[in-house]
Amino acid sequence: MNLVLIGMRGSGKSTVGRLAAERLNWHLVDTDEQVERSAGRSIPDIFAQLGEAEFRRLERAAVADACARDGCVISTGGGAVLDPANRGDMRRNGLIVWLSAPVELLAERIAADARTGAVRPTLLGGSPMQELEELLRRRRPIYEAAADLVLDVRARDPVDIAEELARLIESGGADGRRGS
Ligand code: S3P
């Protein structure tokens, strides 16, 4: 069993993932980091030099590798759920949790992240707010359909969220997901 965190940029996947992994004493796998490692360059460089399609191909390999493991908290890039093969892998051996947040909160968090310019390439263009709104509009139904559990992260401390997720895993709640 793995715990797979999905959601938009700024939803807190990396922070919650790190805390949940520490709490459960599980490995943390960040698919963005795996992609950077396999390409030997940063995500913005991959987008700029190799293009988004190549990024998605590398991301696909990172998700497949991560999901083949066990006892991992897997923090995924915001667009990883777009590939049905990724969703299939996540679902087979993982509890999928969507960290959901309104667009205003995502924008606020992204703006407050000093690394934003360096680590987050533009995907659609337009103003950052327009891009976020459009991405969320397109992705919301995909996140919703993929998730076993949706957590609204608004006004919640990442430590509390990680604790809730750890308890869910420990209680075996993950086994009863989707009624299967
Ligand atoms: C992306 C999100 C990023 C990273 C890449 C593409 C997306 O990850 O994978 O820039 O398509 O939303 P984070 O969600 O960790 O920022």
Précis, in short:
With 180 residues, the chain is of the alpha/beta class. The protein contains nine helices and five strands, in the order E-H-E-H-H-H-E-H-E-H-H-H-E-H. 56% of the residues lie in helices and 13% in strands.
Indicate the topology.
Layout: E1 2-6, H1 13-24, E2 27-30, H2 31-39, H3 43-50, H4 52-67, E3 72-75, H5 84-92, E4 94-100, H6 103-112, H7 116-119, H8 128-146, E5 149-152, H9 158-170
Parallel strand pairs: 1-3, 1-4, 2-3, 4-5
Helix pairs in contact: 1-9, 2-4, 3-4, 4-5, 6-8
The structure holds shikimate-3-phosphate.
Shikimate-3-phosphate binds at residues 9, 13, 32, 43, 77-79, 120-121, 123.
Question: Describe it for me?
Answer:
The structure is a single chain. It contains nine helices and five strands. With 180 residues, the chain is an alpha/beta fold. The chain has a five-stranded parallel β-sheet with strand order 2-3-1-4-5, with helices on both faces. Bound molecules: shikimate-3-phosphate (S3P). Shikimate-3-phosphate is lined by residues 9, 13, 32, 43, 77-79, 120-121, 123.
Percent range for β-strand residues: 5-15%
Tell me the strand order in the biggest sheet.
2-3-1-4-5
Q: How helix-rich are the residues, as a percent range?
A: 55-70%
Number of discrete helical segments = 9
Q: pLDDT below 50 for ≥5 consecutive residues: which ranges?
A: none
Radius of gyration: 15 Å
Number of strands: 5
Structural category = alpha/beta
What does the largest sheet look like?
5 strands, parallel
Give me the strand/helix succession. Answer: EHEHHHEHEHHHEH
Q: Please state the average pLDDT score.
A: 91
Tell me which ligands are bound: shikimate-3-phosphate
From the N-terminal CA to the C-terminal CA, the straight-line distance is: 15 Å
Categorize the overall geometry: globular
